[in-house]
Design a protein that fits this description.
single chain, 72 residues, alpha+beta, two-stranded antiparallel sheet, two-stranded antiparallel ribbon, 1 helix, 6 strands, 14% helix, globular
Length: 72
C-alpha cells in the first residue's frame, strides 16, 4: 500500500542562489507573473532579490527585463 505523505497546499519558500529552502511544506508555489501554480518538483526559475517564482524561462526573462535585471 503506497501512501503519499507530501504536504498539500502552497509552500512557503526562500529562494537562494541556485537552490531554494522550503520554509513551510507544500506541494506548489505561485508564479509571480501569471498566478499559476508551479509544483515544487517543476520549480526551475526564480529571482533571489525579489523572492519570486516563475513558471517558465520566458516569463522569468520578461520579469527580469521589467525590473531592470537584464537588457531589453
Amino acid at each position: 500500500m503506497d501512501r503519499d505523505f507530501r504536504a498539500e497546499g502552497q509552500a512557503d519558500v526562500e529562494y537562494l542562489d541556485g537552490e531554494y529552502h522550503v520554509v513551510k511544506p507544500g506541494s506548489f508555489v505561485i508564479c509571480a507573473v501569471t498566478g499559476t501554480q508551479i509544483p515544487l518538483d517543476a520549480l526551475r526559475y526564480w529571482n533571489v532579490d525579489l523572492q519570486e517564482a516563475y513558471a517558465t524561462a520566458a516569463i522569468a526573462l520578461k520579469r527580469f527585463q521589467e525590473t531592470g535585471g537584464t537588457p531589453k
